[in-house]
Structures are given as C-alpha cells and as structure tokens.
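dumping this here so i dont lose it
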C-alpha cells in the first residue's frame, strides 16, 4: 500500500519528524482558501502515488492566494507518469538551505533493511545513484538488535554534513527507521530532508507499507479518510453564492433565493460559532469562484458574533479586486457593533432574510 505524500507526512509528524503546515485541496478555490489561511508563501504539490513530480511540473510555488488558485488550476488534471492529479497539497513553503536524502527500504539481496543517505538529496537523486554511488552512504542495521541513536549519527557523519547537523540528521534517521519498523514498511523515505533557518524538515514523504500488515495498523487505515479544513464548498449551476451559519439557515436562504427567482451558484455552511477567519475564508472561496456574481451572506448571530462577521467581510473586501456584489443579512449577537462596522465601511446590510434574498436576486438580474 502506497501512501500519498500528505498521508506519509502525517505519519512522520506523529512520530516526531518535523513537517510544515499544509492541507489537501481538490479545487483551486480550496487551494486559495488554504493559502489565505496560512497567510504565507506556499508550495502546491500534486498528490500522486509516484515520484518525479518536481521534474514534471507537479510542484509549484505561490506567493498569495490568487497565485495558489492559478497554479492549482495548472496542476489539477495533469498527468504524471500515468497518474492523473486529483488533489494537491498546499503547504507552507520551506526556506531551503540544503536538501538531503534519507531512504530506508528492504535490501532483497542482503535480506535485511538498508538505510541510504546522502547530503546531495533532491530531484536528481537517481542520477547521483548512477553517476556517484559513493556519495550515497549505505548501512544495514542489525534486524535482530535495537537500532541505536549513535548508529544513526554515524550515518549522518559519513554523509559529510556540517558538524552541527550530525546530531539532528541522526535523530531523523533514527526516527525514520523506527517508523519503518513500527508500520511494517517496505519503504520509508524523505527526499528532500531540508535544512532551513527553522531546523530540519521533511519536505517530501514516501511511505509504502506491506499490504498484509495493514490489519494491525488501524491508524493508517483511519488516516485514509482525507482531512479537510474549513468550509465545505458545494457547486451548483447558478450565479448567487449563499453563505449561512448553520445548515438550516443556509438551506432556508437557498430556498428563499429560488423562491425569489434566483439560482444559487454554491452554498457554504460556515457552521455555528464562525470566527472572523472562517467568514474571511468562506468569502474568499466564493469570490474566487468565477460563476458567482452576487454573494448572499445570511447570518443570524447566536454563538457567531455579528461583529466578527462584519470584520471578516470588511477584511475580504479590502483584499479582493473582483467586482462582486455582497448582500448581507446580519442580526443577532452583537448586531449593533456589527452593523456599525459595516456602515463605517460603507457596506449596506439587511435585517430581514426575505428582503435580503429579494435584493440579491434583483441585483443579480440587473447585472445580466
Ligand atoms: P518529487 O519530485 O515528486 O520527489 O517532489 P518533492 O516533494 O521532492 O519536490 C521536488 C523539489 O521541489 C524538491 O527537491 C525541492 O527542491 C522543491 N520543493 C519542494 N517543497 C519545497 C518547499 O517547501 N520549498 C522550496 N523552496 N522548495 C521545495
Ligand atoms: Mn521527493
């Protein structure tokens, strides 16, 4: 069983190897939201069960949510060695100083595990193995004895890395070998393991686990349910985006839009207790979704505070240059504060859901 990079990384992280924060996206909209949430330059990486993505254009960088949107659009659907890309990993971009290679696999000939490591890691590792095999350190741990931290440090030392890195790289090798054993792996590999100003980070992860042993790794099986972050995005055929807090309210708002003769483009339930960030995230998704002409934001403040919603709206409108109209129905907890924030930003709002829905539909028709 081969695991995707993002899954492998999750396992590595659980076992003490550093990775950067990242999330899986299935659409450019989702990728842009993740990038805006991370609020840093990101790397967008095709998630396919093969290596060589870097050389095939499956790894791209983005400095902002808009770029994350467009590079994801380029990567999704791409064919990498016969694998169609259906999802990407959007991850904080590592500030790489050096790229190392650490791989553990079974040496069939020696009939035992082998650790291979090099200080020249990265996308050219195959050429290195062919042209400069001496630059790859090989070590067979004794499968019947415990693998000791000093053995791992000895490998790091032989790699020829600077002395300050011997101990941290040894530590990663030691942890990776223990992951290899713990999960009955056929391969556990980090290429590249990168040194950054913030320390060593696994910038890639390859994990292949013996199929017959999956039954005893419940955590691996459970992990196959992909993690998603934030809000769910449902595509429909129309041009009005409906955002509400709570499933009932969102669906009612949708019905209301239809009743008034409009067609929803998508609906997003931001849930109860939505923060300023979630509002910002939800709005960024729909504003980046091209069919949307009008956004109908229907919020009834309960746990969600109207002033948080208002702040999220103002923040989005400050950051977006697309000309999309927003109709806001805002009532409930802290409504006066919320309405005041909107008024100060010159954003109109409604109190009645019905009137707001009607206004959204009219506005949309007037744009046709
Ligand atoms: P692979 O080609 O399928 O093995 O994909 P990798 O995940 O190994 O990425 C390929 C190359 O992209 C790496 O060797 C790095 O040079 C580069 N890369 C990947 N992630 C990052 C990152 O976070 N920051 C930077 N600067 N480069 C990265
Ligand atoms: Mn790699």
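and the seq i came up w/
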């Amino acid at each position: 069983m081969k695991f995707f990079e993002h899954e492998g990384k999750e396992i590595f992280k659980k076992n003490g190897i550093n990775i950067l924060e990242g999330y899986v996206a299935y659409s450019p909209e989702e990728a842009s939201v993740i990038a805006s949430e991370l609020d840093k330059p990101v790397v967008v990486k095709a998630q396919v069960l093969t290596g060589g993505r870097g050389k095939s254009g499956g790894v791209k960088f983005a400095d902002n949510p808009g770029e994350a949107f467009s590079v994801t659009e380029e990567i999704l659907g791409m064919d990498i060695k016969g694998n169609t890309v259906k999802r990407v990993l959007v991850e904080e971009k590592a500030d790489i100083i050096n790229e190392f290679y650490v791989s553990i696999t079974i040496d069939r000939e020696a009939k035992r595990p082998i650790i291979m490591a090099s200080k020249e890691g990265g996308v050219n590792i195959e050429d290195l193995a062919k042209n400069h095999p001496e630059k790859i350190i090989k070590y067979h741990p004794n499968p019947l004895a415990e693998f000791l931290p000093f053995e791992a440090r000895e490998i790091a030392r032989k790699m020829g890395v600077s002395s300050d890195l011997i101990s941290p790289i040894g530590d990663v090798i030691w942890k990776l070998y223990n992951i290899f054993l713990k999960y009955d792996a056929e391969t556990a590999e980090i290429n590249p393991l990168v040194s950054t100003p913030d320390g060593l980070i696994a910038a890639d992860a390859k994990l292949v686990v013996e199929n017959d042993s999956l039954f005893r790794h419940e955590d691996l099986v459970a992990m196959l349910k992909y993690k998603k972050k934030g809000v769910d995005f449902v595509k429909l055929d129309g041009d009005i985006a409906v955002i509400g807090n709570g499933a009932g309210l969102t669906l009612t708002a949708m019905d209301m839009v239809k009743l008034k003769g409009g067609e929803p483009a998508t609906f997003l339930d931001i849930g109860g207790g939505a923060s300023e960030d979630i509002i910002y995230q939800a709005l960024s998704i729909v504003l980046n979704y091209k069919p949307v002409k009008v956004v109908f934001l229907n919020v009834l403040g309960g746990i969600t505070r109207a002033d948080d919603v208002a702040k999220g709206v103002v923040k989005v409108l400050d950051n977006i240059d697309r000309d999309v109209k927003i109709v806001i129905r805002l009532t409930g907890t802290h409504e006066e504060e919320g309405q005041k924030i909107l008024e100060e930003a010159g954003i109109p709002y409604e109190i009645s859901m019905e009137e707001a829905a009607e206004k959204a539909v009219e506005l949309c028709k007037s744009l046709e």
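The radius of gyration is 25 Å.
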